[in-house]
Prior knowledge:
Elements: E1 3-13, E2 19-28, E3 32-36, H1 43-50, E4 58-63, E5 66-67, H2 72-76, E6 79-82, H3 94-102, H4 110-119, H5 135-147, E7 153-157, H6 165-182, E8 185-190, H7 193-199, E9 202-207, E10 210-216, H8 217-222, H9 227-239
Parallel strand pairs: 3-8, 3-9, 6-7, 7-8
Antiparallel strand pairs: 1-2, 1-4, 4-5, 9-10
Amino acid sequence: MDIVLQLDHVSKVYSNGRGARNIDFSVERGEVVGLLGPNGSGKTTIMKAVCGLSQPTEGTVTVFGSNVVQDREAALAKVGALIEQPALFENLTAWDNLRLAARYYPNVDAARMEKILGLVGLTPYRKEKCGKFSLGMKQRMGLALALLSEPELVILDEPTNGLDIEATVEIREIIIRLAREKGVTFLVASHLAGEIEKMCSKVLVLHEGEMLAFDTREEALRLHPSLEDYFLAKVRDKKGSVVL
Length: 244
């Protein structure tokens, strides 16, 4: 068992009382783990803690054996991320955005940049300014930036947001292929149960900042016809309601 990511009773609570509480799970190499929950359930809070963008109120986050707070550089050296909206220079082209990002990675050259544009389907638009991109194209560009350095752990917050059906399937297939063929590990957040069901090997259910369940996809579907039903069952159990 090769643990890539470990959250040990992590809490991050903001002044308004929102956030995430007592999150405890681990992710093994090559897994695609989905964080499933509605907006405001704590998905982005967890991802920011993993990426060192916010410090937990309690608990520890360990990535590749290094504590994210105590040794941030070592922990995040092999991590790529797309959190919330892609950070793009909209007055620059897709190529120039990648070129600027590549300065931070010694092993990223023009060939890698071309390959990543092809991977996300943006090669025909390499010389267009990102400010002219649709929401879906910006999401593709954000994914390109997250994958640019060939990371071993990739954190994706709603990666199919704004994409049409065809593009959604393409992004999903990229994630699954990189996990299976390259052993890349993914932590993917979504409020869409169907998307998590199609791409993830494990699912963590979040609701109002609480972790309600963490199961393999097979176990989640063993007693439920879909991941949507599984999610609703866990939420109803929390509320003490009868599951219909």
